[in-house]
Amino acid sequence: MVNIKIIKRKNEEVINNIFILKQYFGGLNRYYYKRNFCSKSCLTKKEIS
What we know:
The chain is 96% helix and 0% strand. The protein contains one helix and no strands.
């Protein structure tokens, strides 16, 4: 149980860091984030179908 909570907290920190980076670095980081997000969502769509 404790390990799962630690992992969840780490994931939240990573997500928060991504949003902070997006705010600081603007266009360039947003481009990379969108590209990574698209590839992840495309993978999940393929898995569902």
